[in-house]
Design a protein that fits this description.
about 400 residues, mainly alpha, Growth Hormone, Chain: A, about 0% strand, globular
């Protein structure tokens, strides 16, 4: 399990590290793209990553299996990093194709293989997914920071480092065993119709959450720039705030994974709490004052922490719901499809907001109200609107926690 988590953390570290320098590389390293053209190409690349997940889902479920498809994806990403080392337009497009396809082959198969490891102990699934999510996000944030710093100094060094990190990921993955047997769990598949409803609801909630989360994160980035400048003026280390999110994710993820391993809480109740924490983050934004530097630092630290914990209450638990209620024969494909709303709904909402020229204050107020409404509704429904059979299943899960 440790090798498995290390492998995925390193893969995300290299992938997001490359992503972090791509636009600057196209504009300043190659000197053939304007900032606007580079941003458009980067946006197209991000969209292709989410679509390529479907290819990975099909291959992992029906042809090559999870482990070997994930290994192939990592190998393609190594080739992509090497391709970027040659500053030509052909190498750039080749690298983007390899990186997109490699991530699509790797990501859903990694998650499916990891989820299958909890087939015999569904009570540990929420905790397992939480530690998984915190570790890979920690890797993504640290990778973006380290490789971006090195890459902005010398792009060749950044891409070579990314290729090396991805190679380490492959080595750790080789020493893991593929979970080929996924025992049939009556608690998960006793009602196919209800399972389908849960999967659809989880996917839709994920799209809504990420759309709202993205709006909050966009404002957070602007606040971060202000806080970093203020910190440097006061003799503090401004770069610390770039990794503050990683610290929040890792520490909160470890704590929550331990809590979920010993205390039973309905999965949708956790998701509802996550939405309420997101509402609190939006509310802090609305209360922000640009005239008080100390308040800016406090608000930034608080919002980052709340968003990190909110994310941990929602994203890994949604994945847990999908894994628990999906037929294992199609698990990787369903996981790949579940990524689509998170990839396309946030930029669509952002485009609508920009065209409508909606003020940030209105976004913050609406975001607070929506997060509160959705969170409260999910908690109430999970508590008072559950079929008798589901109540019995939850009691069985609670008993397993006690054991």
């Amino acid at each position: 399990m440790v090798f498995f988590l290390l492998s995925k953390m390193l893969e995300r570290m290299a992938f997001y590290g490359i992503r972090g320098v791509l636009v600057m590389y196209m504009v300043h390293g190659m000197e053939i793209f304007s900032m606007q053209d580079a941003a458009k190409l980067y946006g197209f690349f991000i969209g292709s990553v989410y679509l390529s997940n479907i290819i990975g889902g099909v291959l992992g479920d029906f042809l090559t299996g999870n482990k070997y498809t994930a290994l192939a994806g990592s190998a393609l990403q190594i080739l992509a990093a090497i391709s970027f080392c040659f500053p030509s337009e052909i190498s750039l497009y080749l690298g983007l194709i390899l990186l997109s396809l490699g991530s699509g082959l790797n990501n859903p198969n990694f998650l499916a293989q990891y989820g299958k490891r909890f087939a015999d102990s569904p009570a540990r699934l929420d905790g397992g997914m939480t530690i998984w999510y915190s570790v890979i996000n920690f890797g993504a944030i640290i990778g973006s920071f380290i490789i971006s710093v090195i890459g902005n100094y010398n792009y060749l060094y950044g891409f070579v480092l990314a290729a090396f990190i991805m190679s380490l990921s492959v080595l750790f993955l080789i020493f893991t065993k593929e979970t080929k047997v996924f025992p049939s769990l009556a608690i998960s598949h006793s009602a196919k119709g209800r399972s389908i409803v849960y999967i659809i609801v989880a996917i839709l909630l994920g799209g809504v959450f990420w759309a709202l989360y993205d709006q909050c994160s966009s404002g957070l980035f602007e606040l971060q720039m202000t806080v970093e400048k203020a910190s440097e003026q006061n003799g503090l280390v401004g770069n610390f705030w770039q990794i503050w999110g990683a610290v929040c994710i890792l520490v909160s993820g470890i704590v929550l994974s331990l809590v979920w391993s010993f205390i039973y809480v309905n999965s949708f109740t956790k998701i509802g709490i996550g939405f309420l924490l997101g509402a609190l983050a939006f509310c802090l934004f609305a209360l922000d004052s640009d005239t008080n530097t100390g308040l800016n630092i406090f608000v930034f630290a608080g919002i980052t922490f709340l968003l990190s914990v909110s994310d941990l209450f929602v994203a890994p638990i949604l994945s847990s719901v999908i894994i628990r209620h999906t037929n294992p024969r199609y698990l990787t494909l369903i996981i790949s499809l579940s990524f689509l709303p998170a990839g396309f709904v946030p930029p669509l909402l952002g485009s609508i907001i920009r065209q409508a020229d909606i003020s940030s204050f209105v976004i913050e107020v609406v975001g607070t109200v929506l997060m509160c409404f959705i969170g409260t509704t999910v908690i109430v429904l999970s508590r008072f609107w559950a079929p008798k059979q589901e109540v019995q299943e939850n009691e069985l899960l609670a008993e397993e926690y006690k054991k």
